[in-house]
Design brief:
By secondary structure, the protein is α/β, with parallel strands linked by helices. It has a single domain, classed as 3-Layer(aba) Sandwich (Glutaredoxin), CATH 3.40.30.10. α2 links the parallel β3 and β4. The relative contact order is 0.23.
Length: 164
């Protein structure tokens, strides 16, 4: 597990998106929970995980839930990544020396944190974890009164875990 575990306060941050907009975690939490997913475009486990995060994004659009990808790459590279994997949620840029990633004590990517409105981390996950993504979906469903469809389809061969 990442050092920033469930129950801890998520460090505040403000980062630019690939489109130049500035997003603040503290401001966003005033509207509801935020799922923060750190990644690198060259990471195969990130490439596997992010389409499932897009499904969660689509399931909870308009329900006060935000999903942010935080790239440890350039804006053009993050934009290509989002286009390649058909991601519609914001991509933020954590430039070198990766200040925000360090504040979250990352040891690997992808690292995913579900931050609730009170600023506390509810779910902290490294790599691809089917159980953790299902827990994220369940928590968001409970807090938003949305009944989402299945996250993983029966025909998909989805492993329980892939290390980052």
């Amino acid at each position: 597990m990442p050092t920033l575990t469930a129950g801890k306060i998520a460090p505040a941050f403000q980062l630019a998106t690939t489109t130049g907009e500035s997003l603040s975690l503290q401001e966003a939490l005033g509207k509801g929970p935020v799922l923060v997913a750190f990644f690198k475009v060259s990471c195969p486990v990130c490439q596997f995980t992010f389409p499932f995060l897009e499904r969660i994004h689509q399931q909870f659009r308009g329900a006060g839930v935000q999903i942010w990808g935080v790239a440890q790459d350039s804006a053009p590279d993050a934009t290509r990544f989002a286009r390649t994997y058909r991601l519609t949620f914001p991509m933020l840029i954590d430039d070198r020396p990766y200040k925000t990633s360090r504040e979250y004590s990352l040891t690997t990517v992808p690292s995913v944190f579900l931050v609730k409105s009170d600023g506390r981390v509810e779910i902290s996950s490294e790599g691809f974890s089917k159980a953790d993504l299902l827990a994220v979906q369940k928590s968001l469903a409970q807090s938003s009164s949305v009944t989402p469809p299945a996250l993983f389809l029966p025909a998909e061969n989805v492993p329980a875990y892939k290390p980052g």
